[in-house]
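User: I'm writing a tutorial on reading structure tokens. Could you give me a worked example: one chain, its sequence, then its tokens, then a sentence or two explaining what the tokens reveal?
Assistant: Sure. Here is the example chain.
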Amino acid sequence: MPHDPGADPVRNTYGVVSEMNVEAKVKSAQMAPAYEGVLEGGEAQPFPRGKALIGAGAVLLAVGGIWAYSHRNPGGDAARANQAPLVTVSAPGVTTVAGTINASGVLAARHDMPVGVVGEGGTVVQVLVEPGAWVKRGQLLAVIDRQVQNQQQASSNANIGVAQADARIAQANLDRGLKLVANGFISNADIDKLTAVRDAANARVRVAQAQLGEMQAKIRRLNIVAPADGLVLDRALEVGQVVSPGNGVLFRIADKGEMEMRARLSESDLAHLALGQEVKVRPVGSEREFVGHVWQVSPVIDPATRQGIARIALPYDRDIRPGGFASAEIRSGSMSAPLLPESALQADAQGSYVYVVTGDNKAVRRRVKVAMVTEKGVAIASGLSGVERVVLRAGAFLTEGETVNPRSQPNQP
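And here are its predicted structure tokens:
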């Protein structure tokens, strides 16, 4: 095969030109890209590939930077807006609130009189009344065995007879002495002695009579009687039971059958009550409603619960059972005030407060004073005018000055 003098000979390991390598080089030159340049000498040169790739990358980076710059503000603002907590707010306005105070409490006798043993005690031989019975003052409720006391009474009676006999003898001796002293048979000193004996005998008669009276009183105290007119609420003894003053209460009697409800109220609610105020009371489990009147307002407040007791007098009725529970509705006038749901109010050591949203959507704490709590919401006595945007819920999760995303809700406490 003739050798081309212009070709670059490629020799193998043995120094012989490789025709295969020469043909591969020719084919590679034919497959080169068509991009070429012309130098001053007229000779064609290929365009560098690396420079073309670098230029294309720079263009892409520039286009991407322009797009990111043009879209950066809307995306950032939306992200920051989504970070603010969403809260529900409402301007409560001013509402006329009926002064209704709702309370609960226990039913009890207005004057619960405990009755027990006042004497020595003994074995109960008779019980004459049952719970629910009406009794009169002094009426016999139960009888305690008095056999021993009866014998002591008989002994006292006998002692009176002995003392009276001694007194009669002493008086007779004195009378005879007075006749003898006139004739000089006895001296005045003897008369004085006889007089002293007579006086001592009369004194022993009075002692014996007093002892009899004491025994009779002890026997009477073995009768358990009603201290006043009223209704028997309970009894705690049976026939055959041995009782003594240490047994405590044996009967409970409601004075004149008068009942009451002991309603537990907060100190703010107690301030709105007055003696004689009308109250509607409904015992638990009953459909009936009873009208009572406040007859006593507790002068003290329980430091643990911050509550006091209002005692409401009620007439006797079979549906009013001491020890049961009841609900009360107390009318205490009306007032005009902002009305908020209970969820809007928060409390700390200084009192109650709410969160108000300002014009720049900042949550600001506002101190308020509660006037009353009703079925429709909490009436605010001071701290709000009614035009503020008040956070209705989630106030416990907010902090002072925090930026929020408010959503308005109509005033529906």
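What the tokens reveal: The longest helix spans residues 147-183. Helices lie at 19-30, 49-83, 147-183, 188-220, 267-270.
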